[in-house]
Each structure stands twice: as structure tokens, then as C-alpha cells.
Amino acid sequence: MTVTKSIKLDTDSIRYIGLFESLVGVVVKDVIINDNKIIFVVKEGQAAMAIGKNGVNIKNLQNILNKKVEIVEFNPDPLAFLNNVFRPLKISNAYISEKSNSKKIIRISFERVKNNGVPIKVKLKKAKHLIRKYFDIDDIILS
Fold first, then answer.
1. Do domains 11-73 and 78-142 have the same CATH topology?
2. CATH top-level class of 11-73
3. Which of 20, 113, 132, 143 has the smallest number of CB atoms closer than 10 Å to its CB?
4. Which residues, at least 6 apart from 134, have a Cβ–Cβ distance to it below 8 Å?
5. Quick one: angle between helices 78-86 and 120-134, nearest 10?
6. Structural domain boundaries of the chain?
7. What's the average model confidence in pLDDT over 68-92?
8. Distance between CA 41 and CA 133 in Å, rounded?
9. Which pLDDT does position 118 carry in this prediction?
10. Where does the pLDDT of residue 35 fall: very low under 50, low under 70, confident under 90, or very high at 90 and above?
11. Mean pLDDT, to the nearest integer, of 102-114?
12. Among 1-5, 13-17, 44-48, 131-135, where is mean pLDDT lowest?
């Protein structure tokens, strides 16, 4: 299943993407802007270059934008994409199922629960938003 939806960008999003691409030199697929954080979704295979050695690109962007910056590498496979969203957590089991009402859900479980201080609920909320935005999937449920 590799259904990706079209992404609509507003003027602010286009500006952030332009700045990011000119400073870092990678292709940005999307940007999610919150009050205190910006998440850049980069093309497949470009996360390491986007982050930079020792996180230098993220640090520079955070200084320029005065917001936290996070990089997520896109993948056209929703389960592989979730692995990228939940890093550093490791997903031990994940599968897509369809309920009788035709809603598609992903059930996931993790190898370890410790997540360097970021609550799993925060990552799950972000993952649900991103998976609905890019794929024809209605929900993510922790198993």
C-alpha cells in the first residue's frame, strides 16, 4: 500500500521550505509548523544530509527560526514511514488492518519503551497527523 495524498502548502510553508532547501541542500516534501516547532519532511534517503554532521544543520535552523526543528524522512510505505516518525523508538511489530466500516488502522508495538524523555503520546499524536495526511489510513493504535 503506497497511497500518498497531495500536499497543499500555504505561503509560510513555502517560505520555510525555501529557506531550508537553500541552507541545507535537500528536497523538502512538506513542512508542519506549530507554535514552537517545525517538522520538515524530507525526501527518501536525505535525512542524514538534512540533519548534518553532529546536527549542525538543525542547530543552524533552530537559531535562525527561533523554533525547535525536527527532520522526518518520508517513505512511500506507511509502515516504513512510521519507523522514521517514531525514531529512536524501534517498532517491533506493525500491520495494517481494515475494520468492518472500511476504516484502515495501523497497529504497532515497540521493542523498548524508553524514548529519551519524549513521551510516547507526543510521538503518537504526531504520527497520527502525518499518517492521515500522506496515506489513506484513519488511525494508529498501540498494541
1. yes
2. alpha beta
3. 113
4. 4, 5, 7, 30, 74, 78, 81
5. 150
6. 11-73, 78-142
7. 93
8. 12
9. 65
10. confident
11. 83
12. 1-5
| Model pTM score | 0.87
For 76-130, the DSSP string reads SSHHHHHHHHHTTS-EEEEEEEE-TTS-EEEEEEES----TT--HHHHHHHHHHH
- The owner of cell 484513519 is 138
Average per-residue pLDDT for the chain? 89
Quick one: pLDDT band at residue 116, thresholds 50, 70, 90?
low
- Tell me if 83 sits within 8 A of 96, measured CB to CB: no
CA 115 to mean position of chain CA atoms: 16
CATH class of the 78-142 domain in this structure: alpha beta
Helix (H) or strand (E) segment spanning residue 52: none
Burial of 102 by CB count in 10 Å (0-12 exposed, 13-18 middle, 19+ buried)?
A: exposed
Round to whole Å and give the CA distance between 57 and 36.
18
